[in-house]
Every structure is written in structure tokens, then in C-alpha cells.
Amino acid sequence: MKELxxxxxxxxxxxxxxxxxxxxPSHTESAALARIALAAKRxxxxxxxxxxxxxxxxxxxxxxxxxxGGAGDIPVYLTPQLNSPEIPEGWxxxxxxxxxxxxxxxxxxxxAVLKRQGWPYSCxxxxxxxxxxxxSMLAAAPEPQNQQQNIPEIIPQGWIKxxxxxxxxxxxxxxxxxxxxxxxxxxxxGKTYRYFTSIVSGRELPATHWMPLPDAPEKxxx
Length: 222
Known about the structure:
This protein is α+β, with helices and mostly antiparallel strands. The chain has seven helices and nine strands; from the N terminus they run αααβαββαααββββββ.
């Protein structure tokens, strides 16, 4: 994005840290930042990357990007994306609001206002007080219900997590990913990078769990 290149890291840090109040953004800078934000918000993903393929990219290997995404897949954009996490439903809670009013930052700000009959601080000092209030509110926020410690992971008996152990190179095993199973062979590229190849299609298989193939049934006598 060429407009983003027109800003130096130092200038962006000045704006985000409120130092720009002594040298506020010009109309040109404000318009450019608005266009950058608008382009990021309007951007559509060009494809989707499977979550477990991130390790492939980190190891320098290729990874497939699919036109349609499934649950847990990562959207891939050509435009830099903004860091704008969604606010959880129900925020701020009553406890969060109370924590903000009971914080030391709120006491410092409100007492100074009462003493001086007006806004007492410079913009930077006021911003630090408000930041302190927000931190107190976030500290009182309820724990997300999808935290790993709140949901015990249930793994069917016999399945092995890929993150815990991988089969030996050349082994043919049953693989599982998002409720789908397949038959794959363990292969290796380089010293440490291992992956499954589908016995049926020959394509690289995404997998979170695997298990050895069952033994063949014994021949019946008679």
C-alpha cells in the first residue's frame, strides 16, 4: 500500500502515542490514514489457509490457499489488515464499570477536577488517567468461556495429537482433521518438517490427530 509507505515508523508512533499534539496530523495525513483504514475494512480475502499449514510456511515449504474457507481457516488478504478485535457481547459488564470508578486513576482524575474546577491535566496526563481506568475495567472483565482451561479437551481413545507425536517416515496411518478422516503416509522434507500424503489423491493432508491402521482380521479356521 503506497500511502502507508509515505508514513515513517517514527511518525506513526508519534500519532499513536499522542505526542502528535505538539505537531498534530495535517489534513493530508488524516485523509491518507482514513483511506488506508477504509481500504483495509473493505478488503475481501483472496483465499484461505488451513491453520495447521502455518508451520509449513514457517519451515519454508509451500502451502495451499483455497478459494473457500472452513471453520478455523485463516483468511489471506492482499491489503494490510487493521488490528480491530470485536468487543465481546455484554461488555462493559457492571463489574467492569464499577472497577473503573473505583480505580486509583479515576480518583486522581476526579479529585483534580473538583479541586481546580475544570480539566486539570495536559492531554498526555489525562490520557494516562483514562488508560489507567480502562486497564482496571479490563482486569475486572469476565474470563472468556472458550478459554482452554475452561473446556477440557476430549480426544477419542486411540487418537494421537500431531503436536505430541508424529509417526515414523513411511508409516501409513489414519488421519483426522475437523471431523474428517483419511489414510495418509508420513513423509519428510528436510530434517524436521514432516507431513502426510493422501494414499487416495496424492495430495498433502491437513491433520490434527492420527492413529495406526488396525491389524488385519485373522484368517478363520475351517
